[in-house]
Specification:
The structure holds two protein chains of two kinds.
Chain A: E1 2-8, H1 14-20, H2 24-37, E2 42-47, E3 51-57, H3 67-78, H4 82-88, E4 90-93, H5 94-105, H6 117-131, H7 137-156, H8 166-178, E5 186-190, H9 194-205, E6 210-214, H10 218-227, E7 231-233, H11 238-244, E8 247-250, H12 261-271, E9 276-280, E10 297-301, H13 302-368, H14 374-403, H15 409-418
Parallel strand pairs in A: 5-6, 5-8, 6-7, 8-9, 9-10
Antiparallel strand pairs in A: 1-3, 1-4, 2-3
Chain B: H1 2-21, H2 31-56, H3 65-86, H4 93-109, E1 116-117, H5 123-160, H6 172-205, H7 213-234, H8 241-264, E2 269-270, E3 283-285, H9 303-306
The chains are: A alpha/beta, B mainly alpha.
């Protein structure tokens, strides 16, 4: 049985989420303490910016950890009131819990639909549980199946392909439409804010190597340049740097344009109409919009980028039903397999007992008929074997049929009692 | 039979074009494989047809306007297949396949199967002449496709302030590089073809008839390409962006004029010296340098080699 308690950006305010969140070290401590408290149960903690989820599983009914126990454990670990925490958490069990995990791993439950980083975070959470020895047969199966389902969604839909953040769209859809390669391009960053750095990250991922940072604050320019192996230039050299640039990312907080048309006209002859991509991510805009009419200039504002982000998000939404159908299919397959596995020990025990009786009866028979030759003995042994299998077939087939719908607890109990199987 | 095969080829390329056009409406993981399969199948048939006419019929691959169109379409088809394999997400076929179709349809409808006259004594020169003109033409066609793609992408991005989403075109940098290379390669090939044509004419007749529309339109084309090359070398902004695309489009127009002059000049389409000095209707000449006149040349070529004993009935 699999249980899940958790909270996410969907149903819990950030004030609660941050109190329940785990750092990697805290997650390790929590898992170790869980193992001491519930040695028979399995557990995985998934903690990201937008969610905290606690999965437990157990093969035997006696070892199952209830939702209340899980909530209490979380509350005690963080030093919170268990009753207050319990009301803030969502709870799932069995198929619901599995489908939820699959949906999370595929990025379909994320704040930004289809964001790919969550898959790596799910994998890290599972690996941590493996290292802490709190992962067991069920959690191994369910987390591996979740990662497989996420890969399927990624391969069979385009939900991850369309970028939805401004920096990623700026590079992947705008810059790459103009430039084939970035390693020979001069990248000029004006301003040293978060947006600039994030865009720079995507640009360097694509191969940008020649980075120049210009900022009013010389210290911040130097720091940013150092982080990205670029060079800083004084604010006064902005136009010179612009004359040499192929791509510009501008994110200053200036209240007026920092480059006007007249200023751009001064450096225009030096550029020989070389293509210049300007990503003006500042509000108010850093570049005079009229510069966009100059030869070879491709000027895009944050509004242009956000419009593409919005369209991409809509395209992701259109892929959602296909992705959910894949996850439903994977969940059904997984649950059938899991339920089949739950009946495994009883089937094994039953077969073992019956074959033991068969062997005892064969031994008794062969003692009474010592004149039997080897071939006759083999024939009799084979006949007994077929008889046992034929007698076992109908009850085991019924058990398998019922296992497709869920764990057949009633049938399993009946078999145990009827055939006096050990617990 | 050949004409029937050409129509089948046209149908195959039309199917490929239709598959490319479906990119506008929906995504499919199977389309790429289907597209490559269809074009590959078409190219196999295309290669077999060109090879059959070359080997079995003893025809040079560019020995008539029919063969010339077929070979040019084949070369463009191969270029398209190569680009599709390396740029599977870009709908290059929407721009290249119509050009392939135009050449195939020209072969099926207006092109003559009667071979050009060939001089035995200048066979190598004539081959260089035909081959360089063919490569030059194919390269100009390719440059036209990439130039048009460049213009669509660049104008759309500047006007709409976002990339073309309906069709995922290659980057402007790549398109500009290919277009520039096409221009320069076209200059080399067409100049070589033009010069060898002049030499052939000089060898045969002792002079070049500059009043011939084919000669002056060809010289206009080569002159234009040379001017473009000088312009690009001397004026740096000419190497950038839309200028290269516009120059390629203009080059294509000059090429069309030269091709029109070649096809519409009676001396070039319809006259072939025969064994006894008469010229059968519908025979063509390979050389752009000078028009052959009825009975002016007597090439002692075997009928099997020339193949004009069965005009239109191949």
């Amino acid at each position: 049985m699999i249980h899940l308690v958790g909270c996410s950006h969907h149903n819990t305010p950030v004030e609660i989420r941050e109190r329940l969140a785990f750092s990697p070290e805290q997650a390790r401590c929590a898992l170790e303490s869980f193992r001491q408290e519930f040695p028979q149960a399995e557990a995985v903690v998934l903690s990201t910016c937008n969610r905290v989820e606690f999965y437990t599983a157990a093969e035997s009914t006696a070892a199952v950890v209830s939702h209340e126990q899980m909530a209490r454990f979380l509350a005690h670990f963080h030093g919170l009131d268990p009753d207050a925490v319990f009301g803030q958490l969502f709870r799932h069990s069995g198929r619901e819990a599995v489908l939820h995990l699959f949906t999370v791993a595929a990025g379909l439950d994320s704040m930004v639909l289809g964001e790919p980083q969550i898959r790596a975070q799910v994998k890290q959470a599972y690996e941590l549980a493996c290292r802490c020895d709190t992962a067991g047969p069920i959690t191994h199966a369910v987390f591996q199946a979740a990662l497989k389902a996420a890969r399927r969604v990624s391969n069979e839909t385009t939900i991850h392909r369309k970028r939805v953040s401004v920096p990623s769209v700026a590079v992947a859809e705008f810059a790459k439409q103009i430039f084939e390669r970035f390693d020979d391009k001069q990248l000029l960053v004006i301003g040293a804010g978060e947006m600039a750095e994030e865009t720079l990250r995507y640009a360097t991922d694509e191969g940008a190597r020649h980075i120049t940072v210009v900022n009013r604050s010389w210290d911040r320019a130097c720091q940013l340049a150092q982080r990205w192996n670029g060079q800083a230039r004084p604010w006064e050299e902005l136009l010179d740097a612009l004359a040499q640039a192929d791509m510009v990312i501008s994110t200053t907080g200036a209240t007026e344009p920092i480059v006007r048309l007249e200023e751009f006209r001064q450096i225009e002859p030096l550029r020989y109409q070389r293509p210049l991509l300007i990503l003006d991510l500042a509000i108010p805009r850093d570049f005079d919009p009229a510069i966009g009419d100059c030869l070879g200039v491709y000027l895009f504002s944050i509004d242009d980028l956000q419009e593409v982000c919005r369209q991409n998000l809509q395209e992701r939404q259109r892929e959602l039903p296909t992705a959910m159908a894949i996850l439903e299919e994977e969940t059904t397959q997984f649950m059938a397999e899991l339920n089949r596995r739950a009946t495994g020990p009883i089937i094994h025990q039953l077969k073992q007992d019956w074959h033991q009786v068969k062997e005892e009866e064969l031994a008794r028979l062969f003692n009474k008929l010592p004149h039997l030759d080897q071939r006759s003995r083999e024939e009799i042994r084979y006949a007994f074997h077929r008889l046992v299998n034929k007698l076992l077939h109908p009850p085991l087939e019924s058990l398998r049929d019922h296992a497709r719908e869920g764990v057949p607890h009633g049938l399993l109990e009946a078999l145990k009692k009827l055939f006096q199987l050990p617990e | 039979m050949n004409t029937t095969v050409v129509w089948i080829l046209a149908l195959v390329y039309l199917v490929a074009l239709a598959l490319e056009l479906t990119r506008i409406w929906f995504r499919s993981s199977l389309r790429g494989a289907a597209l490559v399969g269809v074009v590959l199948g078409g190219l196999i048939v295309h290669t077999a047809l060109v090879g059959y006419r070359w080997v079995a019929l003893g025809r040079d691959p560019f020995s008539s306007t029919f063969d010339w169109c077929l070979l040019a379409a084949w070369a463009l088809g191969v270029v398209y297949l190569y680009l599709t394999l390396y740029h599977p997400n870009n709908p290059l076929g929407i721009f290249l396949l119509p050009l392939v179709l135009v050449l195939v349809l020209a072969a099926a409808t207006v092109a003559s199967q009667v071979p050009f006259a060939q001089a035995q004594e200048a066979q190598i020169l004539a081959t260089v002449h035909g081959l360089s003109l063919l490569v030059g033409t194919v390269v100009v066609f390719l440059g036209l496709a990439t130039g048009v793609m460049y213009l669509i992408s660049a104008i759309w991005m500047r006007r709409m302030h976002r990339p073309v989403r309906l069709l995922r075109l290659p980057s402007l940098e790549w398109l500009q590089r290919i277009t520039t290379r096409c221009l320069l390669l076209a200059l080399v090939c067409l100049s070589l073809g033009f010069v060898t044509g002049l030499v052939l004419s000089q060898l045969r007749h002792g002079h070049v008839d500059w009043s011939d529309p084919v000669v002056w339109s060809s010289s206009l084309l080569v002159g234009w390409l040379a001017a473009v090359a000088v312009f690009i070398l001397v004026y740096r902004p000419a190497r950038q962006g839309r200028k290269v695309a516009y120059l390629t489009l203009a080059s294509f127009v000059f090429l069309l004029i030269a091709l029109w002059a070649f096809w519409s000049t009676p001396g070039h389409v319809g006259k072939l010296p025969t064994l006894n000095g008469s010229a059968p209707e519908g025979s063509d000449q390979l050389t752009w340098g000078r028009r052959y006149t009825r009975g002016s040349l007597r090439f002692p070529l075997p009928r099997r080699k020339l193949g004009y004993d069965s005009p239109g009935g191949l």
